[in-house]
Amino acid sequence: MKFSEWIKLQIESLRSMIVTDDPPPVPPEGVEEIKSGDGIILRFQSSTSNLSRVRKAIEAFCERTRLDTPARDEVGLVVNEALANVIRHAYENQQDKPIELRAEPFDTGLKLRIRDWGSGVDPTGKPRPEHDPLVPGGLGLICMKHLMDEMRFVPEPDGMLLEMTRTTPGSKAAGVAM
Fold it and tell me: Rounded to whole angstroms, how far apart are CA atoms 90 and 126?
């Protein structure tokens, strides 16, 4: 399967989870959204139940940029993958740890900053095992690297900061080998 085909399947899968009715009010343990200048700050716990809300908030924010639909879809997928990695690796699946995501306009797109207070391990410095398409996982970093224009991990004394930008319109998945 080509990477671009896999990306399309992932985006379709995420779209199928979107409820067309308005979601219920965010519970206290849900996602807090704060306006910050032209951007937003999302604060939430490391519960996988928050991933859909956060992804939808970022996709809505992307609509205020000049990114087109394919680029916005890929940013949504990258946010989902990055947060799943934080929960799984930085927090070892603990569901009650803090995560902060900041999104702001940047050039013709956006800049994202995902902050966690987890293990502080930079995943780009670890050896990558060969990807087995029959085993779930292992594509988060590949997605971040290939679907965003820039990505970097900034170690913090008490965790990690992931900075990513996307200004390129259209799909970046075409031509990427898995």
Answer: 14
Instruction: Give the chain's domains with CATH numbers.
Output: 31-123+137-178 (3.30.565.10)
| This model's pTM is above 0.85 | no
The tens-digit pLDDT sequence of the chain (178 residues) is: 788 888 888 887 777 665 555 543 444 568 889 899 999 999 999 999 999 999 999 999 999 999 999 999 999 999 999 999 999 999 999 988 889 999 999 999 999 999 999 998 888 877 666 766 665 566 788 889 999 999 999 999 899 999 999 999 999 987 666 5
Spatial separation of the C-alpha atoms in residues 71 and 57, rounded to whole Å: 15
In whole angstroms, what is the distance from residue 157 CA to residue 111 CA? 22
- Backbone dihedral angles phi then psi of residue 160, each to the nearest 5 degrees: -145, 150
Euclidean distance between CA atoms 167 and 106, whole angstroms? 7
CA-nearest of 86, 88, 66, 63 to 76 is: 63
| 3-state secondary structure at position 25 | coil
Partners of 176 in beta bridges: none
